[in-house]
Amino acid sequence: MPVRSANAVWKGTLKEGKGHLKLESGVYEGPYTWASRFADGTETNPEELIGAAHAGCYAMFLSALLTNNNTPSEELEATAKVHLGDGPTITKIELQMVAKVPGISADRFQELAQEAKAKCPISKALAAVPEITLEARLV
Predict the structure, then answer these.
(1) Do 31 and 60 reside in the same domain of the chain?
(2) Which residues does 72 contact at the CB level (< 8 Å), separation at least 6?
(3) Number of C-alpha atoms within 13 angstroms, CB side, residue 105?
(4) Residue 26, CA distances (Å) to 30, 46, 56, 60, 81 in order
(5) pLDDT in the model for residue 4
(6) In degrees, to the nearest 5, what angle opens at C-alpha 36 toward C-alphas 3 and 95?
(7) Distance CA 77, CA 66 (A)
(8) Can you give the pLDDT at residue 40?
(9) How deeply is 96 buried, as exposed, middle or buried, from its count of CB atoms within 10 A (0-12, 13-18, 19+)?
(10) Residues 18 and 58 grouped into a single domain
């Protein structure tokens, strides 16, 4: 399996300084600041990137489970809301899934949605987060 990497450079103090993030793939490169993490800055922040990683991993894992169940999805839309609390620490992640999956019962879909939440690699990496919730619904 490949090894993935990203790079971060920070210059200056915590509040006045600025950082720059770059993904190895080149699909994202941009700034991050104290304000973008703890206030209303317009740049990205580590929690937003964790949310993107979690939503993407969860959707792909659920897709695999649905395919193996012989009920492939037409569309899966995952959202991950990452809550940053005192410390600072990630206190909660809210996963939301809206899915178009023909031919699956609501109960079976919920079983697979919960299995994907428990088994996707990013969920496993985030096991220290005190609370990860899931709201999954078929449309």
Answers:
(1) no
(2) 63, 66, 101
(3) 3
(4) 11, 17, 17, 21, 24
(5) 93
(6) 60
(7) 14
(8) 85
(9) middle
(10) no
Per-residue pLDDT at 137: 97
How do strand 89-100 and strand 132-138 relate by DSSP bridges? parallel
Residue 44's alpha-carbon distances to 40, 93, 129, in angstroms, are 11, 17, 21
- Same domain assignment for residues 20 and 51: no
Instruction: Determine, yes or no, domain membership for 1.
Output: no
Asked if 85 and 19 sit in the same domain, the reply is no
For the chain (139 residues), the mean pLDDT of every run of 10, in chain order, is 94 96 94 92 92 98 98 98 95 98 98 98 97 97
Rounded to the nearest angstrom, the gap between the alpha carbon of residue 84 and the centroid of all alpha carbons in its chain is 14
Question: 3-class SS at 19?
Answer: strand
**Nearest partner of 114 among 74, 75, 78, 62, judged by Cα:** 62
Give residue 130's domain range.
Answer: 46-138
How far apart (Å, rounded) are the C-alpha atoms in residues 78 and 70?
21
In this prediction, residue 26 carries a pLDDT of 93
